[in-house]
């Protein structure tokens, strides 16, 4: 299929978390049309096997390609680290991946102790190990599996007592180990920054990959002559295969020309 600059940017995640990436893309590229896919029915991906993650990523990609998407952003750390190599081999469309921003954290840390809060699937992946190993000679990297966080976000319990208890249990050991840069290794986690700040204070630097992914998306569109040149606001269609309430809560009326639909896929 011949790609057109008028075609939408496709974005998928294991649920609602990737909307943190979607917002960055829409902000940077306001004239682009987008289609977002929230595979909330199968969230979280972080506890699944590599084969399961690849299978789900292929399913999501096929859905977006059937919507004529010109580029696909894998707005999920676990799907990127486990499946993007397969996706790039299988499909001709450009793919943008996301993985924990270890490099900027390693360059910013003053204590040389960097914390990574991510899912089991991301931390156990070959890609994450290859990336983190580049910085382990000069830094201590503390990896914490954020078990249970995605599930609470997916059910809208961002500010719940359960969330506070979990975050305290993950972050207090990092504070005790002198972590001064915290990398959020899951696209759901930026929604927890206000909660995290209450625990770690203002001194710890919190790093996520959202803006970097948006900039890379723009660069690849330009490289492939796929950047939308029409000077009008883009249209945005968001799909969920679960209850749309949390998706609606996170997106709200923040971005115009947005429609949210429930559909099984």
Q: Compute the gyration radius: what is it?
A: 18 Å
Order of helices and strands: EHEHEHEHEHHEHHEHEHEHE
The proportion of strand residues reads: 15-25%
Strand order across the largest sheet: 4-3-1-2-9-10
Indicate the structural class: alpha/beta
Intertermini distance: 22 Å
Query: Roughly what percent helix?
Result: 40-55%
Count of strand segments:
10
Number of helices: 11
Estimate the global geometry from the Cα principal axes: globular
Query: Main sheet?
Result: 6 strands, parallel
- Return the average pLDDT rounded to an integer: 94
Uncertain residue segments? none
In terms of quaternary structure, the protein is: single chain
SSE layout:
Elements: E1 9-13, H1 19-28, E2 34-38, H2 50-66, E3 71-74, H3 77-90, E4 95-96, H4 102-108, E5 113-118, H5 120-123, H6 126-133, E6 140-145, H7 149-154, H8 161-176, E7 181-185, H9 193-200, E8 205-207, H10 210-223, E9 236-240, H11 245-251, E10 258-262
Q: What descriptors fit this protein?
A:
alpha/beta; single chain; 17% strand
């Amino acid at each position: 299929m011949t790609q057109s600059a008028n075609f939408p940017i496709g974005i998928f995640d294991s649920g609602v978390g990737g909307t943190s990436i979607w917002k960055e893309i829409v902000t940077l590229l306001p004239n682009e049309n987008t289609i977002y896919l929230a595979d909330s029915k199968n969230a979280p991906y972080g506890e699944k096997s590599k084969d399961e993650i690849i299978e789900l990523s292929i399913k999501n990609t096929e859905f977006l390609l059937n919507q004529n998407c010109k580029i696909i952003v894998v707005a999920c750390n676990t799907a990127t680290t486990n499946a993007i190599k397969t996706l790039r081999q299988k499909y001709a469309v450009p793919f943008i991946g996301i993985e924990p921003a270890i490099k900027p954290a390693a360059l910013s840390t003053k204590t040389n102790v960097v914390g990574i809060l991510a899912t089991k699937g991301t931390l156990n992946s070959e890609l994450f190990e290859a990336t983190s190993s580049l910085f382990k000679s000069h830094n201590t990297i503390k990896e914490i599996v954020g078990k249970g966080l995605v599930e609470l976000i997916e059910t809208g319990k961002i500010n719940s007592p359960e969330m506070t208890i979990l975050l305290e249990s993950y972050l207090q050991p990092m504070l005790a180990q002198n972590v001064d840069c915290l990398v959020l290794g899951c696209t759901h986690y930026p929604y927890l920054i206000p909660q995290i700040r209450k625990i770690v204070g203002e001194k710890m630097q919190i790093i996520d990959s959202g803006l970097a992914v948006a900039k890379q998306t723009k660069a690849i569109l330009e490289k492939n002559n796929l950047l939308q040149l029409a000077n009008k606001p883009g249209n945005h269609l968001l799909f969920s295969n679960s209850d749309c309430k949390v998706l609606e809560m996170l997106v709200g009326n923040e971005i115009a020309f947005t429609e949210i639909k429930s559909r099984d896929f």
